[in-house]
Amino acid sequence: MRELPLIIVVGGDDLAGRVCDELRTTRGHDVLQLWPAGDEALRDAGVTGAICIIPVSSDDRLNLQIALKAREMNPKIRIVLRQFNRALGHKIEQNLSDCSAISPAAHAAATYAGAAVDPACVYALQFPDVDGPLVGFSERLARDFGLRDTSVGEAERRLGMRVVSVNNSVAPERAARIARDDRVVAFGPMDALQHAWHRRSRARPQFRRRREWLGDMFRAATRYEPFLIYTFVFATLLFLAGSLYFTFQLHLTFIQAMYFTAATMFTVGYGDITPYNRHGGDFSLLVAMAIMVGGVTIAGIFIASIASAFSRAQETALQGLRRVRAEDHVVVCGAGSTGTRVIDFLLDMHQRVVVLEQRPDTLVLELARTRRIDLLTGDATSDDTLEFCDLQSALSFVAVTDSDTANLEAALGALVQNPQIPVVVRINDPDFSRLIERNFNIAKSFSAAELTAPMIAGLARFPGTRGRVSFAGESFNVGVRSATDRLPRAEGTVPLYAWRAGKLRPIRDFSEMEPEDRVLYVVPLSQFKADS
Predict the structure, then answer these.
(1) Which of 83, 139, 279, 494 has the greatest CB tally within 10 Å of its CB?
(2) Contacts of 75 (CB under 8 A, 6+ apart)
(3) CA Rg, the chain, in Å?
(4) What is the per-residue pLDDT for 205?
(5) Looking at 114-123, 195-204, 282-291, 341-350, which range is the least confident one?
(6) Backbone phi, then psi, for 315, in 5-degree steps?
(7) CB–CB of 291/317 below 8 Å?
(8) Could you tell me if 96 and 55 are in contact, meaning their C-beta atoms sit under 8 angstroms apart?
(9) pLDDT for the residue 200
(10) 3-state class of 337 per DSSP?
């Protein structure tokens, strides 16, 4: 019989291994990794006496099937499962007791989006629920927050967020002083954090932007309808030739002849000037008739060509390659499961988003059609494609495709065009991710598995776990609790924000909680570490 409670992790990929590693760093339980997991394997592993099962394979259906089998064998077992479909996962949580369903892509996307608007963001999440606002931790020098020689209380008032640590001091008192070179960790809404960073305006004059837009439209029209140019040249020559002819034949001034030719070409026919009343003869009548026929033909060609050109220009604007004219926009490379969530977060923060995706799905196309995003259907690893994104004026570049090498190639290409642009990269291998961040001028490089594994491991024991963050030389568990929770508070727990009446409220002590509050907090993990 086991002396410690058992936690079973089901899966054979990197995420399963990292969840096991996270669980083994804390004491008070045994951990068993199981793969594959049939009925007999679950029984042999001891599922009937386990306290928690964590199916985290890459197959959503299999994870749910394993979870339900475990619950039938052990009605009291806690379930933490991986679900790619975030909506389905939420419904499973609502209908299955003592269960948490996690989408690694959606969970990691919060941090990618946070780092896109704040290069100093180290971790972001939604609070209090998956449909709540995006909040995050930002670590930078005090001067980068616009702080110098001030108190913690004054800094919190000016920033509109919680100061979590100053140098190695966690939860400093309000009266504690902050020098301009101190390292400060602040926590708050990403809407506030993104504006707590000084940026130089790169706006172009409005008239220049309009001129560039008109130039792009003309180039698009000439590229798609070259016959329109030939028609225009022919119409001009016909107009000039007709004007010269009628100047001499009808004894008109050149301006009068131009007026008569234009009226004839466009079949207006005012009747004030005609070959008949000017005694131009029969031949001038034939010339006028020829100009009428030519004018009708040219007008038809112009209308059809212009309509076609604008239709194709609109299609290109929705999905195609054309130069984007913008300032402080975020370029997102990849619109898969993670990229789509990143785009959603950025739009919620009222960011202008340019998306690079070779094969956009229906949702992304709809966002482009309604002008919520600028969509370019090109290869993000191509320097020619990146040139269309106006990276010199971009706020940041986010590479979140499913390929590590494609993300790195796109990121390095963006840095070639703008060495100062903050770049956020998704890299599946955590070790490779850290190497990339250290050796290239990349603001942040995150591994989805590394962002998600601590949360999954924490949920095995504590249902309110929201992830892990490191600062001030310590790792902290991020959690959520309500006033009705009876779990004892661990030593060193620091409350950050309360969700009260639909709004975020910064708090410094649990005594400030009200009955309906949900509080987000951090707690140091060193007190739970397993003995070496």
Answers:
(1) 83
(2) none
(3) 33
(4) 47
(5) 195-204
(6) -60, -40
(7) no
(8) no
(9) 43
(10) helix
The DSSP code sequence of 151-203 is EHHHHHHHHTSEEEEETTEES--TT-EE-TTSEEEEEEEHHHHTTSS-----P
Rounded mean pLDDT of 515-532?
Answer: 86
CA neighbor of 113 nearest in space, from 127, 123, 102, 101:
123
Nearest to 96 by CA among 111, 118, 114, 81: 81
CB burial string 397-433: b at 16+ within 10 A, e below: bbbbbeebebbbbbbbbbbebbeebbbbbbbbebeeb
What are φ and ψ of residue 144, in 5° steps?
-75, -15
- The total number of residues shown for the chain amounts to 532
Least confident of 33-47, 145-159, 426-440: 426-440
What is the side-by-side strand order in the sheet with 99-102? 30-34, 6-10, 52-55, 78-82, 99-102
Say how far apart CA 472 and CA 59 lie, in whole Å.
Answer: 38
Task: Please state, in angstroms and rounded to a whole number, the distance separating the CA atoms of residues 159 and 518.
Answer: 22
Cα separation, 181 vs 184, in Å, equals 9
Helix axes 430-439, 448-459, angle to 10 degrees: 130
Q: What is the pTM assigned to this prediction?
A: 0.78
Range with the lowest mean pLDDT among 84-98, 106-120, 216-230, 356-370? Answer: 216-230
Question: What is the C-alpha separation between 356 and 78, in angstroms, rounded?
Answer: 41
Comparing CA positions, the residue from 419, 460, 454, 406 lying closest to residue 80 is 460
Q: Which residue matches tokens 């190695």?
A: 168
Chain center to CA of 214: 29
What are residue 151's phi and psi, to 5 degrees?
A: -90, 160
Find tokens 């052990």 and name the residue: 74
Residue pair 187/497 in contact by the 8 Å Cβ criterion:
yes
Q: pLDDT tens, 289-300? A: 888 888 888 888
Looking at the DSSP bridge assignments, the partners of residue 505 are 498
